[in-house]
Design goal:
Blueprint: E1 7-9, E2 16-19, H1 36-47, H2 59-65, E3 67-75, E4 78-87, H3 88-93, E5 97-99, E6 109-113, E7 119-123, E8 132-136, E9 140-143, H4 152-161, H5 165-172, H6 183-191, E10 193-196, E11 209-213, E12 221-222, E13 228-233, E14 238-243, E15 252-255, H7 264-275, H8 290-305, H9 309-314, H10 322-337, H11 344-357, H12 361-377, H13 382-401, H14 411-415
Parallel strand pairs: 4-9, 12-15
Antiparallel strand pairs: 1-5, 2-3, 3-4, 6-7, 7-15, 8-14, 9-11, 10-11, 13-14
Helix pairs in contact: 8-10, 10-11, 11-12, 12-13
Bound molecules: S-adenosylmethionine (SAM).
Length: about 425
């Protein structure tokens, strides 16, 4: 495990300043905002994405006020470099040095032919759920919204040109599904994953979202039931790709480009509009969408429809097994739809809690053991994550050896208000 104190330098060559001005570097008064129809289109796009939009976003003002820096990030003794275009305000708030990323496991994948999807990433060995597939720094990072009035083609040409020749070649070899823009911009738009650079500037939420292109992870195709998930860690400026269910040797490794709990038609519209392809994943190849759509919508609403755990503990009108059955049903739907990428683990946690509240020692131990095994396999991103995992492991060990130390132990037995005889007979039994 690398030490948390080893660090990487942010700049490998002098940064260039890019200002949203014409000519470059002129003062704010000379800046020309893009034409009104462009501003209106960007404003509409931004305000349609809840996580992105500040209350009164105005792209013309954004262009007038932003300045950018272009530089290369290097990572300790790793020869890899990332070419970044960053808003100067964001860049100032990033750490001066990055923590060393976890070592990437060797020989987990290869890039190969994925048929009509083009190239894809394939497992070269069996991997259990939770296994780390890959740790990777991005090749390029750009803000999601670039408020420059110089052509993007010039910006991308300079940014790509900052990479060492081999990385540059690999980047230029990535897929490009966009015919509506310059080739380099097409590569970014086809391959970028949306990352958040955690900048504590609540007045400008639009500034934190960035596009990051990776030489390997960007080869992952989309699936509506993906077998892998990725997490971004700003502290190490790296992406962690891990299995969400067991992956077999030779199986394609897939991620989700869009929310998979929406019905098939909506997923297809989004994928088409944003990425320009029609999904050819195994889930979309199934002839009938209705049952799958219903299952996905039910999973999307599961947690908001569920009464709080504490309410079930005191509610004598629902049978003891009611809440456990709801979670077991959710786990069944998750397996059916291949949606382990949703927080399937939360259901296992919840079932362990239910058995704790029912003071059922055997079942509480069985389900808590499942939680413990899963956590032991899981990849924890960042120093804080690993520390939290260490503390949680201690807590599980305590609960397993002494179930009564579980904080909600026997709550349902202690606090449940018994059903008044004859009142609302059978209520809750038909819920599952
Ligand atoms: C990020 S790239 C993935 C790697 C790419 N297949 C390659 O050859 O490098 C995204 C592109 O892959 C293709 N793709 C990804 N997932 C797909 C899917 N589920 N169905 C069809 N095409 C897909 C589309 O052409 C999409 O624009």
């Amino acid at each position: 495990m690398p030490s948390a104190t080893s660090s990487s330098s942010k700049v490998s060559s002098p940064p260039a300043a890019w200002r949203s001005s014409s000519p470059p570097r002129a003062g704010p008064s000379t800046r020309t905002p893009p034409p009104q129809h462009v501003c209106a289109a960007v404003n509409a796009q931004v305000t349609s994405i809840p996580g992105l939009a500040p209350p009164h976003f105005d792209f013309a003002e954004h262009v007038r006020s932003r300045s950018y820096t272009m530089q290369n990030f290097v990572f300790g003794d790793d020869p890899f470099e990332t070419a970044v275009l960053l808003d100067e305000g964001v860049e100032r708030l990033l750490p001066d040095t990055f923590q060393r990323a976890c070592a990437s496991p060797s020989c987990t994948f290869e890039i190969g032919d994925a048929g009509e999807k083009g190239r894809g990433m394939f497992a070269v060995k069996d991997m259990p759920a939770g296994a780390l597939v890959l740790v990777e720094h991005p090749a390029v990072v750009v803000p999601y919204l670039i408020g420059l009035d110089v052509p993007l083609r010039d910006v991308y040409a300079e940014l790509f040109g900052r990479l060492p020749p081999e990385a540059h070649r690999a980047l230029m070899g990535l897929a490009n599904s966009r015919e509506d823009c310059d080739h380099r911009e097409g590569i970014v738009r086809t391959n970028a994953l949306g990352i958040q650079l955690d900048v504590p500037d609540v007045a400008h939420p639009e500034l934190t979202t960035h596009r990051a292109v990776f030489l390997n992870t960007s080869r992952c195709n989309h699936s509506c039931g993906p077998n892998a998930r990725w997490e971004w860690d700003t502290a190490s400026f790296a992406l962690y790709l891990s299995a969400v269910r067991p992956i077999q040797q030779g199986e394609e490794i897939t991620i989700a480009y869009t929310a998979c709990t929406r019905p098939r038609g909506e997923r297809h519209s989004t994928l088409h509009a944003q990425y320009g392809f029609t999904c050819a994943c195994t889930y979309c190849a199934l002839p009938c969408a209705a049952a799958s759509d219903a299952a996905r919508v039910a999973l999307a609403r599961f947690w908001s429809d569920l009464p709080p755990f504490e309410a079930w503990c005191v509610d004598g009108r629902t049978p003891d097994e009611w809440l456990v059955k709801r979670h077991l049903e959710a786990l069944r739907l998750i397996k059916q739809e291949g949606l382990q990428v949703l927080d399937a683990e939360r259901h296992v946690d919840a079932i362990a809690m239910c058995y704790g509240a029912l003071a059922d020692v055997e079942m509480f131990r069985a389900w808590t053991e499942r939680v413990r095994e899963r956590e032991a396999r899981r990849v924890w991103v960042g120093v804080e994550g690993r520390e939290r995992a260490r503390r949680r492991a201690l807590v599980f060990a305590k609960w397993l050896s002494n179930p009564a130390s579980f904080p909600a132990w026997g709550w349902r037995r202690t606090f449940c208000v018994s059903k008044v005889e004859g009142e609302e007979e059978g209520k809750g039994e038909d819920v599952v």
